[in-house]
Amino acid sequence: MAAARVRCHCNALFTSHRNSSTLPISPTRVGFTALKSPRKFLLSIGDGSSSCTRNVSGSCLKGTVRAVMEEEKTGAIKEREVEEKRFTCVMKFGGSSVATAERMREVADLILAFPEESPVVVLSAMGKTTNNLLLAGEKAVSCGVSNASEIEELSVIKELHLRTVKELKIDPSVVTSFLEELEQLLKGIAMMKELTLRTRDYLVSFGECLSTRIFAAYLNKIGVKARQLTRVSTLQYDAFEIGFITTDDFTNGDILEATYPAVAKRLYDDWMHDPAVPIITGFLGKGWKTGAVTTLGRGGSDLTATTIGKALGLQEIQVWKDVDGVLTCDPTIYKRATPVPFLTFDEAAELAYFGAQVLHPQSMRPAREGEIPVRVKNSYNPKAPGTIITKTRDMTKTVLTSIVLKRNVTMLDIASTRMLGQVGFLAKVFSIFEDLEISVDVVATSEELDHVVEELEKIAVVNLSKGRAIISLIGNVQHSSLILERAFHVLWTKGINVQMISQGASKVNISLIVNDDEAEGCVEALHKSFFESGDLSELLIQPRLGNGSPVRTMQVDN
Ligand SMILES: Nc1ncnc2c1ncn2[C@@H]1O[C@H](COP(=O)(O)OP(=O)(O)O)[C@@H](O)[C@H]1O
Ligand SMILES: N[C@@H](CC(=O)OP(=O)(O)O)C(=O)O
Hints:
Elements lengths: L2 E4 L3 H4 L16 E4 L6 E7 L4 E7 L6 E5 L1 H5 L5 E6 L3 E5 L7 H12 L6 E5 L5 H15 L8 H16 L5 H20 L4 H25 L4 E2 L17 E2 L12 H15 L3 E5 L2 E4 L5 E3 L5 H12 L3 E6 L20 E3 H9 L10 H7 L3 E5 L8 E4 L9 E17 L5 H14 L10 H11 L3 E16 L4 H14 L6 E4 L5 E7 H17 L3 H6 L17
Parallel strand pairs: 7-8, 7-14, 8-11, 9-11, 10-12, 14-16, 15-17
Antiparallel strand pairs: 1-6, 2-3, 3-4, 5-6, 12-13, 16-17, 18-19, 19-21, 20-21
Helix pairs in contact: 4-5, 4-6, 4-7, 5-6, 6-7, 8-9, 9-11, 10-11, 14-15
The site of adenosine-5'-diphosphate has 19 residues, from loops.
């Protein structure tokens, strides 16, 4: 770790104390602004009413700035030593990466394998803990208070976390009080016979609170100073304690702007007092009106990571998963999916929005706004290059990037009864969805649908088709004719009837609706044709007819 020495003379710094040899500021009032240019950062020191800035050159380009506040001891400012060590990246590890004690050890080794990095670490709940907490909550509603302690999922959660602390040889007290509180909460739910969305969020927050405490305790045990509430550290690094402010939409909170400065201040202030690797709970926030724990929607830890990346202006956001990056399709649907080395934020956002579980749908927003590259890596195979997601990329040789399948979709066919003009009709249709707070692409339950249909039938003839799936073709819509021609040929050859088609507003997505039971076969056939036949790039350089279509014969694998 390199250190640069900065001379800060009192009279040059603080006009209000020009002739004074003492300086009434505390370390918490020292702020730092990281600049993007390597080997330089801006040191800004202020007491609220006055401040100064200095450009500092150094030999180390990565790191958090740490001011050694010598004047606190001596009562006089002579000079400050500034260590050029600021946070370089955020590393988010999903549930699959921290599912067991063994995995936690490997993740710790992985973090230590990058000594040049100074990471902020974000963790999800261990393995399937979030699902188990939700199931336990649902069972508690109807099981009766006396049976709440016996809920199977509670036992699974207890067993997993107690076994993990035992195997990692850390003090079990980091989890025991939490596990007791969890049992009490389930009894409370059983007593009330009700699980509100607010309680649901509080309930699932136990998963991330537990995993981060275990991991921080383990890092401390192996000599890496880490920050989360443990025996060593008294600071809570739960997202709702360090500045993540959200709307009060329980189970789906939106991060508010106030989060960025709050998180940056808290992390830098704590680092300056006492440098330690922050171990932060993913997925969680604090509702700005209620002050209650909120969650960011399933898979929300990716969003926690990108929010921290933007808040701190980091060089890179890393999301570590159980796959070699973003793949050409979900490998559980078709196993010959291959990694996509480069993606734009738009492509990644579209892919996530249309259901690729690999990234949280909102997670690209902070990264795009902060223009911070996101790297998707495999914690089971760290050597694999993964996927790098940036603002732009060379699309000249790209036709299709990935195929995404969203299952169990209901299609609504809405035909005007001509009581309203065309413009008024569409406006009314969309206002009905808006009033019922339903996103047209994700109508979640049949109960919601009943309401929509009831309202729509006042102005239209409505036809409801269940059991459909959306296949989204994410790619270069400069080649939309080629994509459509090939896709339709593949599906026609398989005898599949496409029931609806739409092109996304961001122009990187073409969506096709087919029957759900035929969808997996369609993805496989499309994958073979677009990614395995090897003839697409040739088509891009062939001469075109007047209308821009390439001249070719189609070869489709079945
Ligand atoms: N296009 C895709 N590329 C990679 N993985 C995908 C894709 N679509 C769906 N997935 C699924 O996403 C999973 C990884 O995301 P997730 O379970 O949220 O990881 P983690 O919990 O580790 O953050 C993979 O195991 C894979 O099954
Ligand atoms: N634990 C939460 C949040 C999360 O992001 O998890 P993961 O990173 O394992 O997808 C969930 O399961 O939704």
